[in-house]
């Protein structure tokens, strides 16, 4: 049975304050965003850098993956700072 259809209405989660709920929601959204970001980076960097999949990475592939991930992280940081600074 999932948490939405639980017969126990006196569980601690049903007594959660609005602030606690928002904090939990923020954490879950951050986790979902991080997972989506990593999946996007993995897919795009793999497509760009791995020309012949095998049992190990070549030196060039390893370097390419490292640079690709670094660029995505840097770009995401720049975009995030720009978005958060524009909202103030």
Automatic annotation (TrEMBL):
Keywords per UniProt: Chaperone, Disulfide bond, Membrane, Metal-binding, Mitochondrion, Mitochondrion inner membrane, Protein transport, Translocation, Transport, Zinc
GO CC, alphabetical: mitochondrial inner membrane; mitochondrial intermembrane space chaperone complex
Compartment(s) of residence: Mitochondrion inner membrane; Mitochondrion intermembrane space
A biological-process GO annotation: protein transport
Protein family per UniProt: Belongs to the small Tim family.
Keyword Membrane found: yes
Quaternary structure and partners: Heterohexamer; composed of 3 copies of TIM8 and 3 copies of TIM13, named soluble 70 kDa complex. Associates with the TIM22 complex, whose core is composed of TIM22.
Swiss-Prot/TrEMBL domain comment: The twin CX3C motif contains 4 conserved Cys residues that form 2 disulfide bonds in the mitochondrial intermembrane space.
Keyword Electron transport part of the UniProt annotation: no
GO molecular function: metal ion binding
Name of the protein this chain belongs to: Mitochondrial import inner membrane translocase subunit
Pfam families documented for this protein: zf-Tim10_DDP (PF02953)
Main location, first listed in the record: mitochondrion
InterPro entries tied to this protein: Tim10-like (IPR004217), Tim10-like_dom_sf (IPR035427)
Membrane topology: Peripheral membrane protein
Function recorded in the entry: Mitochondrial intermembrane chaperone that participates in the import and insertion of some multi-pass transmembrane proteins into the mitochondrial inner membrane. Also required for the transfer of beta-barrel precursors from the TOM complex to the sorting and assembly machinery (SAM complex) of the outer membrane. Acts as a chaperone-like protein that protects the hydrophobic precursors from aggregation and guide them through the mitochondrial intermembrane space.
Superkingdom per UniProt: Eukaryota
Domain named Tim10-like: residues: 24-83
């Amino acid at each position: 049975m999932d948490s939405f259809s639980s017969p126990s209405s006196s569980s601690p989660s049903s007594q959660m304050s609005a602030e606690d709920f928002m904090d939990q929601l923020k954490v879950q959204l951050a986790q979902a965003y991080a997972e989506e970001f990593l999946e996007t980076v993995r897919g795009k960097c793999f497509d760009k850098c791995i020309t012949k999949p095998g049992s190990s990475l070549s030196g060039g592939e390893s370097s390419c993956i490292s640079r690709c991930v670094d660029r995505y992280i840097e770009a995401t940081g720049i975009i995030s700072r720009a978005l958060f600074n524009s909202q103030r």
